[in-house]
Design a protein that fits this description.
With 394 residues, this protein is α/β, with parallel strands linked by helices. It is built from 13 helices and 19 strands. Helix 1 runs parallel beside helix 3, helix 1 packs parallel to helix 7 and helix 7 packs antiparallel against helix 8. The protein starts with a strand and ends with a helix.
């Protein structure tokens, strides 16, 4: 029970950083409380094509490829798309297991116990079976409710998320989109006033099966009711499975490094504010952290780990700031305002602009383009000019 590095949490992020470090010659263990990796499913399972720059994604885990989206307000629909497959719908349960197996096959030790306490000055993890794990460094990849993050003094805040796997006939989807484009090539984003600044998504997987979910501040029970009401209003459907989870909210004041402990992924709330997605950001954080961890252990100097936090914030703080501004702007809008917004986007030929500059991972590019073209004040209701202008510092 003595290792160079102990990792708390054996999900995709913990497994990835474990693999990276094991391949560099360190002895690594993963402490994971779940009996089966990947369950329960707590993700929409859609990744941009940037995944291939950050981690391995074998074809066998790709259920579908999409190139665009239909964006729905109450009375209007916007269609945006790339000329290529821009995102991948994956089997997250199988993918998580693959990453876990890759880590253990590289020499990582999997300890199936629950971490209950930490000594981060001496890098000790205490387990639920009264044993302890000694290492030179602890990495927290223990999710939205991270015990290690709390131990480091961080506050935690979350959205709730709920998702159904539902079977829906093709004709229902075609009618809802008012389009006969290939139904498997597009996701749907639906603006519902009750759940703002969250939204509802429809993601095609395989064989008429769709992941239909949302995130908001509502309870999971209330979210289930909203989803069922939405489905009953628009489709004939069969619910196959139900899932629920939590999405951490990024807080720049929280620390990522303290003594001999660092945080990566949901435990660090490394999540896009607008969409709640975070897996690719976490994989990138694994690459950043790996460099500093290797140097810190080789030099036996743990102050070097501060570089991980500084580099991550330098890379992502501005992007997150733009997304928080978008989220804050959405909070000002009613359903009628979103109708007006989508109407004005169509009138100003913004579907082409969104298709060209829209990016799942770097949404600030599109916001900056709208500001540069002076479109912000052409598309928002007049009475909100000043409020939204102040949010974006215009």
């Amino acid at each position: 029970m003595n290792f160079d590095i102990s990792i708390v949490g054996g999900g995709p992020v913990g497994s990835t950083i474990a693999y990276f470090l094991s391949k560099r010659g360190f002895s690594v263990c993963i402490i994971e409380k779940k009996k089966e990796i990947g369950y329960p499913l707590q993700c929409a399972g859609i990744l941009s094509d940037n995944i291939f720059d950050l981690n391995l994604l074998p074809d066998e885990f790709i259920l579908n490829r999409v190139k665009g989206a239909f964006i729905h307000s109450e009375n209007h629909i916007l269609n945006v798309e790339k000329e290529y497959d821009a995102a991948y719908i994956i089997d997250r349960v199988a993918y998580d297991k693959f990453l876990s197996n890759r880590a253990t096959e590289s020499g990582v030790k999997l300890i199936n116990q629950k971490a209950v306490d930490f000594d981060i000055e001496n890098s000790i993890v205490y387990l639920s079976n009264n044993q302890k794990v000694q290492s030179k460094l602890i990495i927290g990849c223990d999710g939205y409710n991270s015990l290690l993050s709390k131990h480091m003094g961080n506050g935690l805040s979350t959205f709730n998320a709920s998702q159904f796997l539902a079977r829906i006939d093709d004709e229902n989807i075609i009618s809802y989109r008012n389009s006969d484009k290939d139904i498997s090539k597009y996701v749907d984003t639906c603006i519902i006033e009750d759940i703002l600044p969250g939204f509802l998504w429809i993601i095609p997987t395989t064989d008429n099966l769709y992941r239909i979910g949302l995130f908001s501040k509502d309870s999971h029970k209330r979210q289930d009711a909203i989803l069922e009401d939405f489905l009953k209003t628009h489709f004939e459907f069969e619910i196959v499975e139900k899932y629920k989870g939590f999405i951490p909210i990024f807080n720049e004041k929280n620390i990522l490094v303290k003594d001999r402990a660092i945080l990566i992924g949901d435990s660090a709330a490394q999540i896009k504010p607008t969409s709640g997605g975070g897996l690719l950001i976490a994989f990138d954080a694994c690459k950043i952290a790996c460099r500093y961890i290797c140097e810190a252990l080789q030099r036996d100097s743990y102050e070097i780990l501060r570089g991980y936090e500084e580099e991550f914030l330098k890379k992502y703080s501005k992007e997150f700031s733009y997304q928080f501004k978008v989220q804050k702007s959405f909070n000002l809008l009613s359903a009628d305002d979103f109708d007006y917004l989508l109407l004005k986007l169509k009138e100003n030929e913004c579907e082409k602009i969104i298709s060209e500059f829209g990016d799942m991972d770097e949404q600030s590019v599109l916001v900056k383009e709208f500001i540069k073209r002076g479109l912000i004040f052409k598309i928002v209701p007049t009475f909100l000019f000043k409020k939204i202008g102040r949010i974006f510092g215009l």
